[in-house]
# Entry
Amino acid sequence: MKPSILVVDDEKNTRELMSRALSDDYAVTTAADAELALEALKADPSIVLLLSDIRMPGASGMELLKAAKAMRPQLACILLTAYGTVDQAVEAMKDGADDFIMKPVNLDQLEARVAKAMETSALKSEVAALRSQLNEKYGLENITGESDAMKRVFHLVRQAAPTDATVLIQGPSGTGKELVAHAIHSLSPRASGPFIAVQCGALPDTLLESELFGHEKGAFTGAIARQIGRFEAADHGTIFLDEISEISPATQVKLLRALETRTFTRLGGTEAIKTDIRIVAATNRDLRAYVDEGKFREDLFYRLNVVDITLPPLRERPGDIPLLVSRFLDEFSAKKGGLVTGITPAAMKYLEAWRWPGNVRELRNTIEKMVVLSSGGKLDVEDVPEQLRAAGNPSGFSSAGTLGETEKAKILATLKETGGNRTQAAKLLGISRRTIYRKLDEYAAEGEKI
Ligand SMILES: Nc1ncnc2c1ncn2[C@@H]1O[C@H](COP(=O)(O)OP(=O)(O)OP(=O)(O)O)[C@@H](O)[C@H]1O
Ligand SMILES: [Mg+2]
# Structure
C-alpha cells in the first residue's frame, strides 16, 4: 500500500502538477483550500503528510498547519512558499513544519523533499511506538506488592505521575527505585516523550556536568564538538537522576541553579537554555543524614524532595515475598519451557525467613538461579541455596556476647542491610535517629569503620 499524502493549493494547475509527480510513489488526495483540507484529514486517517501552499484565499497554510498538527501531532508537513512568504515559512518551521519548498516547484526536488519528510515521520512514529511499548513494560502492573507500604507507594505514584512535581525516591539497593521512576514517567502526560536516566555516581565532576548540561566546542580538552546534554535530550520528557547523593558540592550548586531558574548553560557556553523536563531523583543513601553531615546541600534536598517516595527494605514487608516469588517463578520458568511448576511450602518458608540484604534484586536473582538449576517440577528445600538454609533460624543473632556487643552487632548489621541509610536503620530497630547517630559515633570512636 502506498502512503497517503494530502496536497493543498488554490491553483488547480499546481495541484495537478504535484499530484502527477508524486502519484507513482504515493496515494495523493488534493484540496483547494484549508477548510477542505481539514475535512479530508478528518475523513482519511491514513494521510501521513501534508503539502500545502502558504498563501491561499481563506485560511492560510500557516493556520492549516497549526490546526492539522493539533488534530494529528505525528503528521509530517511541508509548506510551499513564494518570494513574499519566506519569512512566514521560517516561522512555520517553529510551529512544527518539517520543511518548506520554494515556488515555482522543481519536481525532482519535490520528490526528494517529500521522501525525506516521510522518512522523518516514519522514524517519529517508530519511536512513538517503541516508547508506548516501553511504557507498557513499565506500568504499575510491573511492580509487585500488596503490603501496606507498597500500597502507599502505588498511591503516591498515581498521585504524583500526572503532575510535574519533582519526586525523590529513597530506599535501599534493589528495592525497585528505578521501576518506580519508570512508572511515574509512563503514567504521566510525558509518557510519549523521552525517559533519560543519568547515573550520577558513575562519572567524575566535569564529565557529569557535561553529561547533564552539555558542552560547547573547546569547553575542555577533548571537547572537539558541541554536544547537547541530558537536560536537553530529555526535553518534553523525564530526567531520572539516579544516585543523586553522589554528586559533588560544585555540581550540586549548578544543579540547584538549573532547578530554580529552569534554565542552564552548556559548559563553556553563554546561551541560557530552557527545557521542559520533569525531574525524578533517587538514592539508596540516607539523604537527610547527608544534609545533617554537610555532604548534601539542604536547599537542593528540599528542591528535590517535593514528593517523597520511600521504598522499604523487603524484610520489612515479608508479606510481599510469596507474591514476588510466584511472579519471578512464572517469569523464569517460562524461559525454561514451563518445566518448573511451583514451589513447596517448606521451600517458601526459607525464602520468607531470609533477611534479603539485597532486597527484591537478590530475591529475583535467587529464584532465577533456583529455576536454572532445577530439574523440573516443584522447587523444594534442596533447591534453596545453601546460604539460606544454613541461616535456618530466622532470628539470626547468636546468644553469645554481652548485651552491648549484641546491640552493636545488631545495629551494624541493620545499617549494612539498609545500605548505610541511618534513618531507615533507626526505624527498623525502633530507636530514634538521634540514638543511632550517638551509637554510631561511639562505635566509630572504638575504631569501627562506618
Ligand atoms: N516490587 C517489585 N516487583 C517486581 N520486581 C521488582 C520489584 N522491586 C524490584 N524489582 C526488580 O528488582 C530489580 C532491582 O530493581 P531496581 O533496579 O528498580 O532497584 P533500585 O532500587 O533502583 O536498586 P539500586 O539502588 O541498586 O539501583 C529489578 O530487576 C526490578 O525489576
Ligand atoms: Mg537503581
